[in-house]
Amino acid sequence: MFVVRSKSGMVFTSTEWGENNGKELEYKTRAEAEKEIEIYQQSFRDQEFFIHELNAVGRPPLGITKKVSLTLSEENWDWLDEKAEGNRSKLLREIVWNALGNESEWDNYACLGYAILGAKQVGLNDEQTKKLVRSIYSEFDMVGVDKANEIYRESDY
Asked: How far apart are CA 89 and CA 16, in angstroms?
């Protein structure tokens, strides 16, 4: 038996009447669970899902293991070992997940959404907001993220 869960802790339960109400949804085969993940990903685009095999012995796999050779300065290794508290793999996995999470949450439309919210907060009317949004949108193709970041950090705003 298999269940589908999200890496953020989301669990899917039955809503049917009777003894299964509130119990975690179980699938007889891994293939069935994989089909459900496809459905869940359409509704929860910001979530990462995995399949957990019930009654499996040992720790569930987190993904594919690949060996990596990493060159860092002595100071960087000291920092890494201090933060890792004896588990380098776990720390590096968390760093990668955090980096991917931040990147996957951001896009140009999110930026425009923030601009609209800010415009409303300072009292811009619809025409002014439309002008602001179009102006920002046109800059996406002209200025890269690093340059935009630099411009903001060097501004008085």
From this structure: 41
In terms of Cβ atoms closer than 10 Å to its own Cβ (0-12, 13-18, 19+), residue 74 is exposed
Distance CA 96, CA 71 (A): 17
Tell me if the pTM is above 0.70: no
Spacing of C-alpha 140 from chain mean position: 22
Q: In DSSP terms, which residues pair with 71 in a beta bridge?
A: none
Task: State how far the alpha carbon of 60 is from the alpha carbons of 4, 50, 84, 85, in Å.
Answer: 12, 10, 21, 22
CA 116 to mean position of chain CA atoms: 23
**Residues 18-71: pLDDT tens digits?**
777 778 888 889 899 999 888 888 888 888 888 888 876 666 566 778 888 989
Backbone angles phi, psi at 81, to 5 degrees: -65, -35
